[in-house]
Design a protein that fits this description.
globular; alpha/beta; 269 residues
Length: 269
């Protein structure tokens, strides 16, 4: 490889906080960014899982509940204490546990989905942005949205939250541009992650309970749509990690406020 191209991909000595990095897409991102030279901090509720991944990639782990602003502030402070600063935030943590149609969804379930999937992005972005501004050397934020934020699929709460992440990304990108902090999002399609495998095996309950009232979001239309991937297969966490590396490295140095769709063409049909 040409040395100049390697420099474009390098994240040497960048301090990166990945939320929800103990498994799935977050783990994939943490591993690839560490391979690119970043000092990765994994923030997760799963302390053991975060510590395991951190040990394997030469990073560190911190307990993080993204629904708590105080916990997010503490995680950023821990990054600074351990590594002297913070250059990159990846807002990956989220959950589709509260997906489903509006007939069955409770108000508490709606609120929980918004808290986990949208409010959490604000909770982590604010203290991270404050630190990056104070440092005066720019920075990067990548928010993991979803194709569900572009086309309804999993439920009114989840879809609305992910659409909110996409708009928040645009707003935050404009807000932080004077400080050379680039903010972008990635909208994954169907990605093979351990949670989905556990649902299929029965180890975890399904996203759509069998007793659900049939609706447009809880019927055959969505089941059929889920099979329509033009490239013919699901993605892997590494596919999302590659997009994150592009956005956070110098390869994406003039990109801000955008959402990159990584879905094998799913939104095309």
């Amino acid at each position: 490889m040409d040395a100049a191209l390697g420099e474009l991909l390098s994240l040497d000595d960048k301090v990166v906080l990945v939320t929800g990095g103990a498994t799935g897409i977050g783990e994939g991102i943490a591993r690839l960014l560490a391979s690119a030279g970043a000092r990765v901090v994994i923030g997760d509720l799963d302390d053991d899982g975060a510590a395991k991944v951190a040990a394997e990639i030469g990073g560190t782990a911190v307990h993080l509940d993204v629904t708590s602003f105080a916990s997010a502030e503490a995680a950023v402070a821990a990054c600074v204490a351990a590594h002297g600063g913070l250059d990159v935030l990846v807002n990956n943590a989220g959950s589709y546990r509260d997906a489903g149609g509006i007939i069955d969804q409770s108000l508490e379930s709606w609120r929980r989905s918004i808290e986990v999937n949208l409010a959490s992005v604000f909770n982590c972005s604010k203290p991270a942005a404050r630190r990056m501004v104070d440092q005066g050397r720019g920075g990067g934020i990548v928010n993991i949205a979803s194709v569900d934020g572009l086309m309804p699929c999993l439920g009114t709460a989840y879809d609305s939250a992910k659409a909110g992440v996409i708009q928040f990304t645009k707003s935050l990108a404009l807000d932080l541009a004077p400080h050379q902090i680039r903010v972008n999002a990635i909208a994954p399609g169907h990605i093979a992650v351990p949670t989905l495998a556990k649902m299929r095996s029965g180890e975890l309950p399904p996203v759509w309970p069998g007793s659900s009232v049939p609706t447009g979001l809880m019927g055959p239309l969505m089941a059929q749509r889920a099979q329509n991937i033009p490239l013919g297969h699901s993605g892997e966490p590494l596919d999302i990690a590659k997009a994150a590396l592009f956005l956070l490295s110098d390869l994406g140095s003039y990109v801000t406020g955008h959402t990159i769709v990584v879905d094998g063409g799913w939104l095309l049909v």
